[in-house]
Each structure stands twice: as C-alpha cells, then as structure tokens.
Write a structure and sequence with these properties.
245 residues; alpha/beta; Molybdenum Cofactor Biosythetic Enzyme, Chain A; Alpha-Beta Plaits; 2 domains; 6-stranded mixed sheet; 38% helix; elongated
C-alpha cells in the first residue's frame, strides 16, 4: 500500500498544473506497486506534519513531492521532522553534495536544503546533484518535474517489485445508466478483478470505457470475455488483456 503527497500552494492556487502524481503512479505500476491515495496540501508546516503522520502510519510507503528548496516557503522538511517527532539536523553527506554543486557565495541560502529530519538517509543517482531523501517509510522528492523523474528511477530500485497486473478494456457506445446493473452483477461474481466504468465525453464514437484489472491474466480474461458477451451490442473497440504499464 502506497500514498503520494503533493506539497505546494502553486498547485492549490492553479498557478501550476500538477503533473507529478500521474508520472509517479505510472512508474510505480511498472513494478507492480499500486497507489491507494493521493493528497495535495499547502506549504504549511502543521498541515504537512499532520498529513504525513496519518499517511506514514496507514501506508507501507509514502512519496512526497515539493517544498524542499532553499526559499522561505519550502517547509516540507520541517513538516516531516514534526511528523516523526525528530529534529532538523545538518546532514553532512547532503552538505557535501550541495557544496560541490553550488558556489560558496550562495551557501547561506543553500545550507537550508542540507537540514534534514534526524535519521534521514540519502541515495544519489549520478550525475544528478540532488538525492532521494528517505526517512523511515517516507521518500522526499523535489517538485520540479525534471528532477522528480530522475528520482523515480531510484525509487523503483528501492521499493520491492510486486506481481504485475493485467488490464483489458472495452470502449462502448452506450449511456452508463443502461449498463450499470449488469456491471454490478458482473463485479459481484468476482472479488479478484477490479471493474471500472468511466464516461467519455470527448469522443464521437464511444461514450463509456470499461476496464478490468487483476494480477492473474486468466482471471482478467474470464471477466473480460463475460463483459464482451454482455455488452456485445455496444462494443466499439476491444483491448484484450495485457500487462498494465
């Protein structure tokens, strides 16, 4: 079980579009990890701390992005330290990485980024100057998409790979309320396949997308086949079960 925390006033104010959670989720799916919850909070120490306290207790892993830079509104580290009830301390390994990258004339502002929750560890993927910062089951990543994408390669190595999942999909030309009862009955016959129904409004050929997801290919195939029979009069496109990427 895994959760993502997005930190940033700029997201909540619609100043920047939030793209990181989609990329993180996509990358985690490639190693079989499923995201169970995504939250977005403002640049507020107490709010970050309260949210991380809840998530880190409830989930096996938590990934946070944003709020770890040198400016006054970068307060994720303070929030994480408060959540784990530890101090912010100077991490010597982080300090060296930053000293090697930033000029000494800017060290007063840069030094803030070397203050990490006590007990944190860092994992560096060359040639980047910024590491993955880990405190227990929490991974703290930068919010800048280009840096975050580098870090996800490290995250994928640190997290255990789980069994891959399979997905089939049907694109139908029908109103959802016409198939709701049959979908409910189909879902009730299996506990291992997750059936999703999603309305489509930007296509003139189909109006509903159905998905069928599970760990075992044969289970997905069985329910997918049943759905093909149930909704044969509405099918526009079939996507046979394949590995969920």
């Amino acid at each position: 079980m895994l959760a993502i925390l997005i930190v940033g006033d700029e997201i909540l104010r619609a100043q920047d579009q939030e793209l990181n959670s989609f990329y993180i989720t996509k990358q985690l799916h490639s190693i079989g990890q499923q995201v169970n919850e995504i939250r977005i909070v403002s640049d507020d120490v107490d709010m970050i701390a309260a949210t991380l306290t809840q998530l880190c207790v409830h989930y096996e892993y938590v990934i946070s992005t944003g709020g770890i830079g040198p400016t006054h509104d970068d307060v994720t580290m303070q929030g994480a330290a408060k959540a784990f009830r530890v101090r912010l301390v100077l991490n010597e390994q982080m300090e060296k990485l930053l000293c090697d990258h930033y000029p000494q004339s800017h060290w007063d502002s840069v030094r803030k980024m070397a203050m990490l929750p006590e007990g944190s560890s860092i994992v560096l993927n060359k040639p980047s100057h910024w590491p993955v910062i880990r405190k227990d089951n929490l991974f703290l990543l930068p919010g800048l998409p280009s840096l975050l994408r580098e870090k996800m390669e490290v995250i994928k190595e640190l997290l255990p790979s789980l069994p891959i999942r399979w997905q089939g999909a049907l694109f139908l030309d029908v109103a959802e309320h016409h198939i709701a009862q049959k979908l409910m009955e189909l879902q009730s016959t299996t506990m291992h396949v997750q059936i999703g129904s999603y309305p489509v409004t930007d296509n003139d050929k189909w109006t509903v997308r159905l998905t069928f997801v599970a760990i075992k290919e044969d289970e997905v195939q069985a329910v997918f086949t049943q759905a093909c029979t149930l909704f044969k009069n509405y099918i526009v496109i079939k996507q046979i079960p394949t590995v969920l990427q």
